[in-house]
Design a protein that fits this description.
The complex is a heterodimer. By secondary structure, chain A is α/β, with parallel strands linked by helices. Chain A is built from 15 helices and 11 strands. Chain A has an 8-stranded mixed β-sheet with strand order 4-6-5-10-11-9-7-8. In chain B, strands 5-6-9-1-10-11-12-13 form an 8-stranded mixed β-sheet. A 3-stranded antiparallel β-sheet of chain B has the order 4-3-14, with no helix packed on it. The chains are: A alpha/beta, B alpha+beta. At the A-B interface, helix 9 of A face loops of B.
């Protein structure tokens, strides 16, 4: 039962092969066995057993009443950055370790309307800042492919949970690669949509102009199912864009013959690990077999992506996180002697090191005298990067690259050097700056660890990307591999 | 040394929108603390702002009213600072691209040596922003309470050029802005509830010097009177320091009306760096000429236009027209009175005279005036059609003011002030008065002709007295004259 995809679970429920309560209990048992305790993966911060079973029961009743949708009774999990009415939402931070929102994020609400079951909230780097899920107040998450390695971040909990089949799919968010990099590290399919595709209402902001939610799933077909629910225009989010939401599953089997794939030379640098390059190039060769043509292209401003990102994202976060002040919600320091002490200690004790680093960087970048040199310049670079892509998409239908420079690294390996950690996102970050959609799909393995292929689409072409990914997955089996040691026979 | 005073004002006006600038919560005043604060106003994690188009419309109305450039693309910025009544840790405002650019208004001084002189004051800009909540420092045993009902109320901040040269000009400017926003109906103008507040920037420089002196900013002054007092005592303070050879510290100060002094707001001078940057949660506000013109063409009549109309069409003096149009409510009151009695001159005299004196004496505003405009108009109509005379009108006014009744005609009856128009009745009173004052009649007859006019006044007074003031004075005059002349 554990390797069932979303699509299979949906069909199984419809066919009456099992009930929602049964499948929900199945996953809850797996979470208990594999996630919790000292040797557990630690991919969940909150498991809402009682609520999940109540939702499953309600879903079964809804099905019996004849009002079921494809989603009714299907279990999923939400990244702990999405607000859930009445359920703890920590963002992986001590400062929100007691925060129970009085409302649902629009994405959460969308799933509720369909009758999906929420098993719980997944672990993450604090406020989505990190590439290894080592920056969580609730502890690091282990990669099910190798427990000594990281699952990537910041959506490491969602990725590890789906990879270990503790949940068939999960929501995630991506500000610089936080969906695609963990999906690549755990052998999954992850998609970051076009900026404005999914509502940000109720998604705690890290960097508002870059944040976008998307799915992490086992297959492109499941990712399409997820996006069908996650994508919506939302009047409560001024940056949400009123663009019709297609049925992303409807075009999965379209012919991809004749599609032109661009390979930017900057994304295949000379120092790229040869084994990584070889896995990615052979995956791309598979697309050639499916009738696509390959074209070398150039995105000349690629090298400016990381520096621009590390001005814009910290600048925005330095303001976004100001509301975490210990005054109205969240953790307040003990016995503040005055207002200044309350602020200083609540925030000093409540935030972890990486969050503080980015708040300080952002505060500096916005200061009088530095604003033009950093923030304004970074915004100009965003424009240059966007222009690179717009020009490239005049000639190609998709752009492909490795998702990450290396497979999953070891826990603790990069924690000492923030810049080395930041370089993890070198291939993913430009899309957030440009607002473009991108996804990662399993393309093979290096040293027995999964490797991701990044597919970049033009604005609003999520359906095309999912079509490409699904055709690849129809022709290959990389996505079917699951990590060893996750059979629930204990 | 002779000093020149330089004053610039920043006026915050709460816009009278039904809901807040970035959330759907009500903006009504006076509710229980935190009952009108939504998730957005509370600044909870994950919430997002959505710009209220009604606030945009009002800001553009204001821009059109002061003949300003309207920002076709205006941008909201975040102004970062920590304070408990600022729930997000930043205020959403407009720094570089305000909705309203350079405009101007004309002010007319009400009193002082320059009474009646008109001066143009340029308005640098006006931008939209959100109001903060309130910190409540009482009733919490050493702690502070926070009420976020006001948080997110739309404000327009109107920034003047530093073109005012004394406190009276500043007050005239503040009053003019008050009248413009209330005429437009975009602000209720209630200073006592903080709907309009004023920050006064004051500096001194030696007369003839071009460079500005160091300024101080007096924050949140909330009445016309306090603006004048605060500026004057700040001018005094700065002059004393400068004349003693000291220098002014650039700082924000508070005015204490009880002690009539300003004092520094911060014990520690921390240079705040607000780290403004464009709010990534809000898109730039883009409007086109059609939008602006549609608003411009529907503007209500503004105080200057109304004043001009009163002068041109109804021959009011400039001073009378200025006073009567200073507030929307007074102007509306006056127009109703004038239309009801059909005589603008008469209405002007009574509204500026008797009514205004009574209001001053009882310290009531035109909104709380016990005599409605319709009733005063009806009364003046009776004066005009000579049902009552001037003396009767004063008696009647007093009864109306005391709210004895709103029925003008019934009161005229019950007060017995109906003017006697019957010539027979007047003649018999005249005969009686002449008979009772033979000595004065003899004097009159004996007097030279050019002295008699003056002497006639005595007899008029006696007749009016005998008629209990109700005789038609014109008729009394002519009957008396005829009868006395017969005796000569």
């Amino acid at each position: 039962m554990q390797n069932l995809t979303l699509a299979q679970i949906s069909k199984g429920l419809e066919a009456g092969e099992f009930t929602s309560v049964e499948i929900t209990q199945h996953y809850l048992d797996r979470i208990k066995q594999l996630d919790q305790g000292e040797n557990g993966l630690n991919s969940f911060i909150t498991v809402n057993e009682e609520l999940a079973l109540a939702e499953a029961k309600a879903a079964d009743e809804r099905r019996a009443a004849g009002n079921a949708t494809a989603w009714t009774g299907v279990p999923i999990a939400h990244k702990d950055l999405l607000c859930t009415d009445g359920t703890l939402t920590t963002c992986g931070s001590k400062i929100l370790s007691n925060f129970v929102p009085p409302y649902d994020a629009t994405i959460v609400e969308n799933f509720k309307k369909e009758g999906a079951v929420c098993l719980g909230k997944t672990n993450m780097d604090e406020f989505a800042m990190g590439s290894s899920n080592e920056n969580s107040y609730f502890g690091a998450v282990k990669n099910p492919w190798d427990l000594e390695r990281v699952p990537g971040g910041s959506s490491g909990g969602s990725a590890a949970a789906v990879a270990a089949r503790l949940v068939p799919a999960a929501t995630a968010t991506d500000t610089g690669g936080s969906i695609r990099q963990p999906a690549a590290f755990t052998g999954l399919t992850g998609l970051k949509p076009t900026y404005g595709r999914c509502s940000r209402w109720g998604m705690v902001a890290y960097a508002s102009s870059l944040d976008q939610a998307g799915p992490i799933a086992q297959t492109a077909e499941d990712a399409a199912m997820m996006l069908n629910v996650m994508a919506s225009f939302d009047e409560k989010d001024s940056t949400s864009i009123e663009q019709p939401v297609p049925d992303y599953t409807a075009t999965l089997n379209d012919d991809i013959k004749g599609k032109v794939i661009g390979l930017p030379k900057e994304y295949f640098p000379e120092n790229l690990d040869p084994e990584m390059a070889s896995v990615v190039r052979s995956a791309i060769a598979e697309f050639e077999k499916l009738g696509c043509t390959i074209k070398e292209i150039s995105l000349p401003n690629t090298g400016l992506g990381i520096p621009a990102y590390y001005v814009v994202a910290p600048a925005e976060c330095s303001a976004n996180l100001s509301r975490m002040d210990g005054v109205r919600f969240g953790v307040r320091c003990e016995d503040p002697k005055d207002l200044e002490d309350l602020y200083k200690r609540s925030r000093g004790e409540g935030f972890g090191a990486e969050v503080k680093r980015r708040i300080m960087v952002g505060t500096y970048a916005l200061s009088t005298g530095f604003y033009d040199a950093y923030y304004v310049k970074a915004q100009k670079i965003r424009r240059l990067i966007k222009n690179d892509f717009v020009a490239a998409f005049n000639d190609v239908d998709f752009i492909m690259s490795p998702t990450t420079p290396t497979p999953a690294f070891k826990t603790g390996e990069k924690t000492g050097d923030p810049v080395e950690m930041y370089m993890e996102d070198v291939f993913t970050i430009a899309l957030n700056l440009a607002g473009l959609p991108g996804m990662s799909i399993p393309a093979g393995k290096v040293n027995n660890l999964p490797v991701g292929l990044q597919i970049i689409g033009n604005y609003w072409n999520e359906a095309g990307m999912l079509n490409m990914a699904h055709q690849f997955q129809t022709a290959t089996d990389f996505h079917k591999e699951a990590p060893a040691g996750i059979d629930s026979n204990r | 040394m002779e000093w020149e005073v330089v004053i610039g004002l920043e006026i915050h006006a709460q816009l009278a929108t039904k809901s807040k600038i970035f959330s759907g919560s009500s903006t009504a005043f006076g509710a229980e603390p935190n009952t009108q604060a939504s998730l957005v106003d509370l600044g909870l994690p994950g919430v997002l702002p959505v710009f209220n188009k009604e606030a945009l419309n009002m800001a553009v109305q204001f821009g059109c009213a002061i003949d300003a450039e309207i920002g076709k693309v205006s941008v909201f910025d975040r102004k970062n600072y920590f304070y408990p009544d600022s729930p997000k840790g930043y205020q959403t405002t407009q720094l570089h691209h305000p909705i309203v650019g350079m405009g101007h208004i004309d002010i007319t001084l009400e009193d002082g040596p320059d009474k009646g002189v008109t001066k143009r004051i340029n308005v640098t800009r006006a931008h939209l922003e959100e109001d903060a909540g309130k910190s409540l420092h009482e009733d919490f045993q050493g702690m502070s309470g926070i009420d976020l009902n006001r948080a997110g109320t739309p404000l327009i901040e109107i920034v003047s050029e530093p073109e005012m040269r004394n406190a009276k000009e500043a007050v005239a400017y503040f009053k003019k802005m008050h009248s413009i926003v209330t005429y437009l109906g975009i602000c209720d103008g209630d200073l006592s509830q903080g709907s309009m507040r004023c920050d006064c920037n004051v500096s001194l420089r030696p007369k003839g010097q071009e460079e500005f002196g160091t300024r101080t900013e007096i924050k949140n002054v909330n009445s016309f009177r306090f603006v004048e007092q605060a500026i004057n005592c700040e001018i005094e303070r700065q002059r004393d320091i400068l004349e003693d050879g000291g220098s002014i510290v650039q700082e924000t100060r508070l005015y204490d009306p009880n002690k009539n002094e300003t004092r520094s707001m911060r014990s520690k001078e921390v240079a705040n760096d607000y780290r403004y940057f464009p709010c990534p949660d809000l898109l730039p506000v883009v409007i086109d000429d059609d939008y602006i013109e549609a608003i411009r063409s529907h503007l209500p009549e503004l105080p200057d236009q109304k004043k001009q109309r009163f002068m041109d069409d109804h021959k009011l003096s400039e001073y009378d027209a200025s006073v009567l149009t200073a507030s929307r409510e007074l102007a509306a009151y006056f127009e109703t009175v004038a239309e009801k009695c059909g005589d603008y001159k008469l209405a002007t005299n009574w509204v500026m005279g008797e009514l205004s004196a009574a209001m001053n004496k009882s310290d009531v505003s035109i909104q709380a005036c016990p005599i409605s405009a319709e009733v005063l108009g009806a009364m003046l109509l009776r004066l005009k059609d000579e049902t009552i005379n001037g003396k009767g009108a004063k008696t009647l006014f007093q009864s109306l003011w005391e709210k004895q009744s709103d029925d003008v005609d019934a009161l005229i009856e019950s007060l017995g002030i109906k003017q006697v128009q019957d010539s027979g009745a007047i003649e018999s009173i005249v005969d009686e008065v002449l008979a009772n004052n033979q000595a004065q009649v003899d004097n009159y007859v004996a007097a030279a002709e050019d002295k008699r006019g003056k002497m006639l006044g005595f007899f008029v007074g006696q007749v009016m007295k005998a008629s209990k003031g109700s005789a038609n004075p014109g008729m009394v005059n002519s009957v008396l004259k005829t009868k006395l002349d017969e005796k000569c």
